[in-house]
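Translate structure to sequence.
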């Protein structure tokens, strides 16, 4: 799960497709359509250990869009085949809900609220 999050952050399309189960894998992924993810929080896991062949991961991830911090909350299913964990599908709980208390009014030269340390205009505000 964490490796797929990292692949989304760095837009490693090859890894995302390789780690997606063939029965649900899309034909392609548009890198331009991937939001700028900034934080991952694992909420709950079921199974998914070395001796298991299936696993469930509930997580929240934050992104920044149109001057709002948004949250993706998903419960994802994984299956292990040939010693590799593959993403099957996910149940989105509350896609892109604004995060309360995090609706920044950001100037272009202000630090980006995503926490990157870069100016807003060079980070999420481009």
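Result:
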């Amino acid at each position: 799960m964490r490796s797929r999050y990292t692949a989304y952050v760095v837009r490693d399309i090859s890894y995302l497709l390789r780690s997606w189960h063939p029965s649900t894998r899309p034909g392609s992924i548009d890198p331009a359509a991937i939001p700028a993810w900034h934080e991952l929080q694992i909420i709950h896991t079921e199974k998914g250990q070395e001796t298991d062949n299936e696993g469930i991961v509930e997580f929240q991830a934050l992104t920044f869009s149109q001057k709002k911090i948004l949250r993706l909350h998903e419960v994802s299913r994984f299956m292990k085949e040939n010693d590799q964990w593959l993403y099957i599908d996910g149940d989105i709980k509350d896609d892109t809900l604004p995060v309360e208390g995090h609706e920044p009014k950001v100037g272009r030269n202000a630090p980006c609220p995503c926490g990157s340390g870069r100016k807003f205009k060079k980070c999420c505000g481009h």
